[in-house]
Specification:
- 2 copies of one chain form a homodimer.
- By secondary structure, chain A is an alpha/beta fold.
- Chain A is 41% helix and 15% strand.
- The first copy, chain A, has 12 helices and 12 strands.
- A 6-stranded parallel sheet of chain A has the order 2-1-3-4-5-11, sandwiched between helices. A 6-stranded mixed sheet of chain A has the order 7-6-8-9-10-12, sandwiched between helices.
- In chain A, helix 1 crosses helix 2, helix 5 runs parallel beside helix 12 and helix 8 packs across helix 9.
- The first copy, chain A, binds a DNA duplex through helix 2 and helix 4.
Chain lengths: 368, 368
DNA sequence: GGACGATTCTGAAACGTTTCAATCCGATGC
DNA sequence: GCATCGGATTGAAACGTTTCAGAATCGTCC
């Protein structure tokens, strides 16, 4: 990202055609506050005031300056403003996978709240890679970003450490953190895993597969742990739950996992996926192989993205309040940013998930 | 969005606690190139060269300066660089709906190509609203963005006009434009519409609904026109094709359209949707109402997003090369940006769509 | 021994804002 | 007629870079 040194070599010896200066800076963009000041016969300070503190300027001057701004097509330079202010008016947002509608929804909620507060948002995709995450954080630092909303891909707390080191306000999204360490908004993954597993156990399943990789991601780990605790609470042995790891959390990984699942014997009667993308991919493989859902294998997803309800077999899923998650995180960040004098108290907010039962896990009679 | 005037009132009378200056600027971020220069006993110019033109600096100095940078945690200020350079190192990207996996895929392709070229990307969502689009373009202008990739929401060419007026390099994405006017990369929507409609007509359907709103959007208009031309080419009357407009192009609009469709009599035997989101929403309604697909109603979507294949009934769809679209647009923009001296020739590229037949439109015997 | 080149470094200008102390001016109060 | 006040405006500093003309140093060649 923004690799330093890509520019210089190519632009070393350019003719640099000086643009004609006869007209007052014709190629818009090049019109500065000085040109406006000159055009209106006032000082630059006054022009600045017209823009930022109109009530300080007499009506007559204000109108005159506004007219010149219009005429010259003046657009103020955000970089100059930033330089002066010492920080930008942007918030960086870093999610694990923008192609996952769950995160798209989270981002949408956050963006809406932040824009309402006059802050721009730069949404970036770490692709669950600590290296890409670090690159983006470096980019944010160069931009003197105002704050960061991040779902960390880095599993050792280096991300949090680095942000705290820089003094950048941040809020963890979809990941919990001790309140002393910083703000966080998450959804109770332990509970979600428990809900989903208990539902399958209730339906009589005694061989359940948990499909979901990267147990270094707390989301996956907690959902699995929740499922395990449901098994234990129901008085079953640990081996009722089989863990099938995947390296990514997308549809393609779900398809692969489906193939592996079909090779298992004895074959599980139910599958619990770490997210809906995996479940949808798995469903494709099962469908293609002629395996019936839920008759042969019951399926439960996680996130309840919009496409879960429209799936080949409408998908039972653990719904997470994605929009609320984003909005809440944004509010927390805004609180920290604006309350600059007041000693901001970090908060740890944990939202609750909800099981949405659909066809893919319709109740069955225990068969084995 | 970055509303001017939100800041000033709240920060008018703040105590502004001057940070301790004993340590060399402890709260990172505040370390400037001057601090590094002082720390290393060189001039600021030399520090700048260490960073940007290392080959110009003696090894000894380079190492010394690098060490100081490390020690002080210096991070260069992008806004200062921008101010000096006159433009940012960012490209703005504006799509109609980021929640639509099709655009997510386009954005991903573009981002990848641009990052490889050392440019950052700011992806924004106009929500198909000309007003929001204009706001974002204004934001881009203030940021002195290097170039813009845009799928215009504004249907009169105002967007293009405004960009050309600013002199900002741009490429239209998923929308065609005469090569004299600027670069564009699109997919042949006329052809796509024809493919889809011909497929349904071949299967014997004689009452086909086209579901898709906002015919002011060329994508929708062309797909509809393509469908109409297929009807004409097959020698049928115009009224074989019924147009059912929707105001948005998302899953919820598809659900609504489904309800309206069910109220029609005679009921169409096939539906062609302007995109997959509509088709998936429609499918949900049909499924809930017990209408069988494709037996009672055949369904064809558009875009072939990943979720189409995993739908309740795997969806026949017109595949568009989303990733390629984004990548190609990025390449065109890069060509225009880098070839600053060379007279850049605008190009109009039209990619071809492809019909992917799945269960939702399985062949049937003509019944009426 | 002086001229010249190459290499390395310096110092200052410039980028376009915002902010703030200082100035100006007309009106008000005495 | 003078001091004072308040509102409107000015002018310059500062923000943190990059760039570039020039200075310093050293070696080489005539």
């Amino acid at each position: 990202m923004i690799t330093p040194g890509t520019g210089p070599p190519t632009m070393a010896s350019m003719p640099r055609s000086t643009p004609k200066r006869d007209e007052p800076a014709r190629s818009a963009g090049r019109v500065g506050i000085k040109d406006v000041a000159r055009g209106a016969g006032v000082s630059v300070g006054t022009v600045s005031n017209v823009i930022n503190n109109p009530e300080m300027v007499s009506e007559e001057t204000r109108l005159r300056v506004r007219a010149v701004i219009e005429r010259l097509g003046y657009v103020r330079s955000e970089s100059a403003r930033q330089l002066r202010a010492g920080h930008s008016r942007m918030v960086g947002m870093l999610v694990l996978d923008l192609a996952n509608p769950f995160f798209a929804e989270v981002a949408k909620g956050a963006e809406h709240a932040l824009r309402a507060a006059g802050l721009g948002v730069m949404v970036c995709n770490s692709a669950a890679s600590p290296a890409e995450e670090a690159e983006y954080l470096a980019l944010f630092a160069e931009q003197r970003i105002r704050g960061v909303l991040v779902t960390p891909a880095d599993t050792g707390g280096r991300t949090v450490e680095s942000l705290r080191g820089q003094g950048t306000p941040f809020v963890l999204v979809d990941r919990s953190l001790a309140a002393e360490e910083g703000c966080s908004v998450s959804v109770d993954d332990l509970r979600g895993g428990t809900l989903a597993a208990a539902h399958l156990l209730d339906a009589g399943h005694r061989r359940v597969a948990f499909v979901g990789g990267r147990t270094d991601l707390p989301q996956v780990r907690d959902r699995l742990a929740g499922a395990r605790s449901a098994v234990a609470a129901a008085g079953f042995a640990d081996d009722v739950l089989l863990h099938l790891a995947t390296d990514r959390l997308d549809v393609a990984a779900g398809r692969d996992a489906g193939a592996r699942l079909l090779g298992l014997s004895p074959r599980p009667t139910a599958v619990l996926c770490a997210n809906d993308l995996l479940a949808l991919g798995l469903l494709q493989t099962l469908y293609a192989a002629g395996v019936r859902v839920p008759e042969d294998i019951a399926l439960v997803g996680y996130d309840d993205i919009e496409f879960a309800a429209a799936a080949a077999v409408p998908l039972t899923s653990v719904r997470q309040p994605a929009g609320l998650l984003g909005r809440t995180a944004a509010d927390l960040l805004l609180d920290e940013i604006t309350a600059e004098g007041v000693p901001h108290a970090h908060r740890r907010i944990v939202l609750q998930p909800e099981l949405v039962v659909r066809d893919s896990s319709a109740a069955r009679v225990p068969s084995s």
